[in-house]
Amino acid sequence: MVVIYEKPDNSISVLTPTQEALSFATIQQIAEKDVPHNLPYWIVDETTLPDAPIEYWQLDGTQGEPDGFGGESNEFDAELLEKFKQGIIG
Question: Is 90 part of any domain?
Answer without folding.
Answer: no
